[in-house]
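## Example record

The block below lists the input lines for one assembly entry, exactly as stored, with component labels intact.
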Amino acid sequence: MDNINNPHCDRQSECGNIELCESCVYHTDVIEHAKGNMPDDEVLYDLAEIFRVFGDTTRIKILWLLFSDEMCVCDMAELLNMNQSAISHQLRLLRNARLVRSRRDGKQVFYSLDDEHVREIFDKGLAHIQERR
Amino acid sequence: MDNINNPHCDRQSECGNIELCESCVYHTDVIEHAKGNMPDDEVLYDLAEIFRVFGDTTRIKILWLLFSDEMCVCDMAELLNMNQSAISHQLRLLRNARLVRSRRDGKQVFYSLDDEHVREIFDKGLAHIQERR
DNA sequence: TTAACATATGAATAGATGTACATATGTTTA
DNA sequence: TAAACATATGTACATCTATTCATATGTTAA
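Predicted structure tokens for the full assembly:
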């Protein structure tokens, strides 16, 4: 790995932080490699957004419930001992992220997992936390 | 699926919300099945926590950078055009979640992915957002 | 139609979170 | 030793988020 002490940073024009560019030691090969392969900001934003939706205990519990069966809002609220409104708000986030879908049956609305990715993402997360115990 | 209109809820003693219990239509078989298989709250909390760490654009970018190579804090700050302090704070969260590890080499600290789960979780998330396009 | 019910949603609020600034810690070099 | 540097961390603050309350929407049954 090149270790270049670089007081005259050749990427200075692209860099908002002049102080940093004038003082920092760069590994330019590593930087160039990473820069070349960086996905679009939009993709990385969407990716973070999906995980953000997984990143809440209430929503994780809802997803868990839906692994067993489709389920109506009322049953989820009962099982999680939470306000119906709170559940509905969280279901909207899950719906927008296409992690769950809904079907109406009379007065009730039944939710189920939208696709198998949900279970796969869930399981990979579980594998991680279980390994580190 | 049983659909029991149940004004005298038999789980009323366990239920904090009396109004809900007196009015709601339950699917008791679904509820009992889900209740029996529910993991510990602690596991579900830890799981949400892991995804919460993935659920930020800056941290997602950092993880992406580490797929290519190990990398020092300075290079990450340069590449992401961000404050060194901001990167360090995020690295601490990633370290605490055991998603990255660090090694010191002189004045610099190099970060790398802690295990393969990180890449797998990342890829599953990517598969989800790419499929829905 | 009206009443009762299940769900959705807007507004408000308390708490969580990401970043910047200042500064501390740890390492190397002079 | 002191100075320079890379990183870590405490604090403050602006923004975001989860929940609650009140209420709207949509469905069924009387």
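The CA atoms of residues 54 and 121 of chain B lie 9 Å apart. Residues 1-23 of chain B have pLDDT under 50 and may be disordered.
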